[in-house]
Amino acid sequence: MSARNSVTLFRLRGIRVGVDYSWFLVLFLVIIWLSNLYGSALGVSETETYALAVASALAFFGSILLHELGHALVALRRGVGISEITLWLFGGLAHMTRDSDSPGTELRIALAGPLVTLVIAALCTAAGLALAGSREAFADALLLRRGADVSGPAAAFAWLGSVNALVLAFNLVPAFPLDGGRVARAIAWKVTGNRLSATRFAAALGQGFAYVFIALGIVMAVNGALLGGVWLGLIGFVLASSARRAAVETAFSERLSGLRVADAMDPEPIAIPADATVQRALDEYFLRYRWPWFPVTDAAMRFRGLLVRDAADAVPAEARAIRRVDEVFQPDTSGALQVRADAPLEALLSNDTLRRLGALAAVDDDGRLLGVVTIGRVGRVLRDAAGRRNRVG
Q1: Which residues contact 88 (CB under 8 A, 6 or more apart)?
Q2: How far is Cα 73 from Cα 78, in angstroms, rounded to an integer?
Q3: Which of 2, 61, 201, 379 is most buried, by the most CB atoms less than 10 A from its CB?
Q4: How far apart are CA 266 and CA 381, in angstroms?
Q5: What integer pLDDT is reported at residue 350 of this predicted model?
Q6: pLDDT value of residue 10
Q7: Does residue 274 share a domain with residue 231?
């Protein structure tokens, strides 16, 4: 899921939060489904039923977003950048700018989302019980029994608690790339000390569970549960594709052992000083080199972010001689625009920002700009590495 296929909702700490176009289809289907359930169970007016269904559906997707924000918050605290969070057909995705650097980091990031979902499920269940007034009434609300003597909010909270419990259980299935699969990878990584072999193990688990989901989906569809069967089969297909892609990337990563980001960077980057005027940036950089953007550095050559040509052009002509670059540039608050020069080259294979932007800033431990990594240079290094391995073989 990328920005090209989704609508931006807002930005949080530099992280773009959006919804894929497929999300609108799912939202519509969930609202229709809940409207029918609430209508038959509560016996309220169509307007109240529809309003309750809309509120419940939006609250559910809000809980999915909170789940992904849980992953993102822990990732940022562990030094892993998040480029964007996208809600789509099968839930949500937090796009990390690089892979975890240790089993502990992998485990903490993987468990953060399920812990958020657990809290949401517990709070919604508690609210549903309180509003229902008794366990028997809550059970009626939970099962949405026809003629249930409960209020609309009680039924909504009961449903939200149950659906978040299902999301929690599903996410903890050890099928990579689900959260449970990432937990399995973290454990295998800790035991073996090898991230690549751990990823291979987790990917194999993911493919196995994916085929189980597909088989169960077929059985459900044959036995009359067509919608549920098709949905489970689709989930299995997506899991199988993701796990297979992870296995292929792991096999390729093994061929890149020993190569670093520094091997694919331009060691003589052209950067604009943060204290330069916009006019100087246009005259000495954009008009001279004709590039769409440049890295911005401070006086100590620490990477600060990017200045995009459109942002410079947007400054009124009469103000360009006094406006400074650090007033109009795009700051790298999340770390998504940079990568450590001593990081393994294979870390770039899953880097969403590199694919989207076409380049990244390569920095040292102190954040000083050492070079610029482009997709073209990475591709050349990968082809050279593959050629050398083939000749040796």
Answers
A1: 1, 6, 19, 20, 22, 23
A2: 9
A3: 201
A4: 12
A5: 67
A6: 80
A7: no
Q: In this predicted model, what pLDDT tens digit does every residue of 24-59 receive, in sequence order?
A: 888 888 898 888 888 877 777 788 888 999 999 999
Q: Are 21 and 6 in contact (CB under 8 A)?
A: yes
CA distance 325 to 312: 8
The boundaries of the domain holding residue 50 are 3-172
Number of domains in the chain: 3
Q: Residue 154: what pLDDT?
A: 86
Distance between CA atoms of 104 and 77, rounded to whole angstroms? 13
Shared domain for 26 and 123, answered yes or no, is yes
Within a domain: residue 287? yes
CB-hemisphere CA count at 13 Å for 14? 18
* Block residue for tokens 């980091």: 105
Check whether residue 200 and residue 90 sit in a common domain: no
- Judging by DSSP bridges, how do beta strands 369-374 and 272-273 pair with one another? unpaired
The pLDDT mean for the chain works out to 85
Alpha helices in 223-272 (DSSP H): 226-254
Task: Supply the pTM of this predicted model.
Answer: 0.69
If you average pLDDT over residues 203-217, what whole number do you get? 89
Residue 179 lies in a domain: no
Three-point CA angle 144, 147, 153, nearest 5°:
55
Residue type, 221: A
Q: Which two tokens stand for residue 342?
A: 């001593």
CB-side neighbour CA atoms (13 Å) of 163: 18
Distance CA 84, CA 8 (A): 10
Of 223-227, 329-333, 337-341, the least confident: 223-227
| Alpha-carbon span 53 to 36, nearest angstrom | 9
Token pair of 43 as six digits: 């016996």
Within-domain flag for 200: yes
Strands 91-96 and 265-266: unpaired
- Specify the 3-state DSSP secondary structure of 233: helix
